[in-house]
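Annex B.
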Amino acid sequence: MIEIHFDKASEAEKLFWLLNERKRDACPLFHAAYDGNKIVAVYIYGDEKHVLETYIIPAMTAFVQSVLEDRLLLSIISGVFYFRDREEQQQILALAHSFLDGERRDYQKGAEFAASRMALLREACASFLRDGLSFSFSSFVTFRLKPYIERLEHYVGLAIDEYKLEQEYQTFVQMLRECLVGRTPQWPRLYLVHDPPHFVFYDRHRRELSAAEVKRLIDRHLVVSQPMYIDSSVLAPLVSLAPAEIELYTDHPDDGMVQTLQNVFQERLRLRRRADFSRLFVASAGNGEES
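Sporulation protein YtxC: predicted structure tokens.
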């Protein structure tokens, strides 16, 4: 028999439920019992190694992931990195989950992460659990799950770096919006064509501007007076001109600069497909228009 003591009855009940979910396929290899309070007992009748690896350890790892992991993450966020504001904690927790779940494709795991955090949990359980053992689950977490908790700390660190970058980005976008509010539009309309990685400027007559012409559009006082760096090839000339309308032609709406332009210029900017710009020229030539 393996006897597990919990600090909370609700946790004991959850593990008991997870064990019974697996018992459906394992009866009569093991039996789980719950005393209605804080103790779960597991009676092993089949091959010990097989029962542990196939049923008990998967239930334990599922329990840690579903019940304990968020609590550990929040403890790390507040206790290790000292983020005490509840809203900030929730934002960082969400970002940590995006790393944990492999949602951020731009993050490449190094060689030191050959084993997943779930593999670390399984290894900790496999090296500890045996028939005839009685233990406190909280002590097991404290003394046996250090590699797993260190992995969580790593992901929280990544999440906090991302959170700080996003905060800086939002500050940057808000700064540019405030610049626009105080500026009189210099041009009624501007066409911007995205040919990655470049953005090509066209005036309201759809005449392409050279790089030198775009550079001359920049209000140097605007750039110098701002506390944050403003990209001189796209953002600085656009904010300097503060066009009343911007038509942006791109096949890459998820591009970082495209999204920044949308965030800064908001209702002033209209997003079009790249092919629409070529058709615009053909239509204008056919109608003899010059707008």
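The mean pLDDT is 90. Strands lie at 2-5, 30-34, 39-44, 134-136, 189-195, 198-202, 245-249, 269-272. Further annotation is deferred to the next reporting cycle.
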